[in-house]
């Protein structure tokens, strides 16, 4: 060590604040070999005098310090070893002074203002400080008020190259390498750190008690302890020695498994430990209830999914209990990895449960059954669509085919056929003497009156109005889409329904939505409105201009392609806008793609959201209506021969799989005849197969059909969306709020349950909230596991909006005079913002972990 370094280290000591009650710093330097004696006079300290201490001047130096110079900083240099206290005249003075040494350990203590009690630790880490990169990382941690634990963790963190000094992070790094067959970090710790001190911390912090110091054993101990924490029964005896019953193990694993950046590494550790435990054999003998709260291993999710799926296919009927189980898995670690599997189970469960609670579809008349479908029965179609969408996304569907077949049977035979039969029977009640049924439902708005009932008032007032027609958008899908609109936009969306035209097909449905006095059906695709052919957007625009000169009809995809300037130019001064969107029917009404109709529905939702956003932001559209030309029936199993009805061979206006339009209707077995007088077509009759049946037709698809009279085909959605700056402010959507309902702000147990309350039910203007909750100290260090609270209850009853969550604190020593915090963060936001930070006192009886 040269004199420049000596001077630098001594200047740091003298620059420090004197001890309490002192006015200066006194430093003793015993240079055992006198190596610096010849240079001491050239030292030139910035803020201290130097006096040399020898055998013959001890009394003089003592008098100098205590009588002659009591104000200046003093360096007392001795070119001899320090004598024993009984032989040292200055022993009492040394007790309130500082010691300096040129050995490496002493310089480390000086440079980092560490207490002399850490000299032994510093000696063990001398090699660590021989590398600038390691020292730079060590310095950047910014530790002060050094303790033995802080020193150990700072060195280990630097060697493990973690960004923030954290012992759990060091262990994770080591385990990742060990399980992966690497040893770089452990080699660095052996050379530049201390393996003995590392294992001392492991044993103290995690309760590791095996004689063999093995990181493989440590991995097993950590995951078994985490697993046991939530396992309903006790562990097998063979595993019990690996249960440390230490909450720090649980907190480490909880952080490890939920760190997305470490996902692959954690899976490797899981696979290693699961193999050592023969976890699969253990799980095979446990009930779902035993493991439903556990999420240590992804194999647990696989077992839960397989077990519930097997119970469903075996006819289990406790669907409400299974729904609770499946909902409870949403905030578990591996839910995202098995989301489609869980969704498949959940929507199958919902469908089976609804079927169980709906023994029949009894109704007094069409009006009653119409309302029941609108309010409740549409959910069969919704759950079937959601199940099929999730099922189609499964990577390994073979194990699911039996469940899919049961869902298909419950939907097709138990719902679709039964409902359509009942609907047809009620329609038959209105037959006239010729067996023809008038097309009307009491107190139900008709699609053909859409313009006059809903749009004409805006035209008369010269207010801009936008109509979006999504081809094939079913009512059940519109229920979901209305929720999406309310979530995505600051405005208000309200859903109602209309009775669609019969036959329920595109050309006629589109024509009925236009302004008209008279509709004339010339052929299947040629529908004339007041003498103008409605085929094509150009003709539709001509029809719109008959009621409003400032009118435009445009395809949605063309509108979305317009630049901002083109958008402004196209719609400048335009008051009546019809936008035509075709994603669902385009995919469904094609034999090659009809299986994708439910995926097309999801895609349509995204496109329609983008369309509404473009209209609101691009041309400041305020008043919008979203509707459809028709609905559809879709079932995954093809129609069988017995489902098919003989097809009329007369000269018909139109003949398709699902309907015949004719002026000479015949009595066909298995059909119903509907008068089209409601459209002014007194000489035309629509002939429709009963139920969900179709006419024979060569080629084409047979799973997706429309044109008939089923509720799925003719109950059309009508979404009224109102936007605008002022209106949006008044009706802005916001997330529900969550409160901590537990009254005490003192924690006395290392495992604590807290009560939370969702203050409002989720509704039209209040969206769900996903909260991440954990405990942290004043410095922001997490001291507990992290739990996810999904506040999405729609219950009006307070008991239905209560949540109970378990928090496990790290096994550490807590200061009851310090403040700790329960932190709630909005987990839905890209940047997790803090909702609230609740102060707590922690006063535990025991706590023996690492101290910071």
Q: What is the strand and helix layout of this fold?
A:
Elements: H1 3-15, E1 26-30, E2 49-52, H2 58-68, E3 74-78, H3 91-95, E4 98-100, H4 104-111, H5 119-124, H6 132-140, H7 148-160, H8 167-179, H9 184-192, H10 195-206, H11 215-230, H12 237-240, H13 247-257, H14 263-277, H15 279-284, H16 288-291, H17 298-313, H18 319-328, H19 339-357, H20 366-392, H21 401-428, E5 436-437, H22 450-460, E6 465-470, H23 475-488, E7 492-499, H24 506-512, E8 519-521, E9 527-529, E10 532-533, H25 537-545, E11 551-555, H26 556-561, H27 564-571, E12 576-581, H28 584-588, H29 597-618, E13 623-627, E14 633-634, E15 654-655, E16 660-662, E17 671-676, E18 681-689, E19 704-705, H30 711-714, E20 715-722, H31 725-730, E21 734-735, E22 738-740, E23 746-747, E24 751-758, E25 766-767, E26 769-776, E27 787-791, E28 802-808, E29 820-826, E30 834-842
Helix pairs in contact: 6-7, 7-8, 11-13, 11-14, 17-19, 18-19, 19-20, 19-21, 20-21
Helical fraction equals 40-55%
**How would you write the strand order of the largest sheet?**
7-20-13-6-12-11
Shape: elongated
Helix-strand category: alpha/beta
The span between the termini is 33 Å
- Could you tell me the mean pLDDT? 92
Q: Which sheet architecture does the biggest sheet show?
A: 6 strands, mixed
Strand tally: 30
Contiguous low-pLDDT stretches (5 residues minimum) are 848-852
Number of alpha- plus pi-helical segments: 31
Indicate the radius of gyration in whole angstroms. 39 Å
Strand content: 15-25%
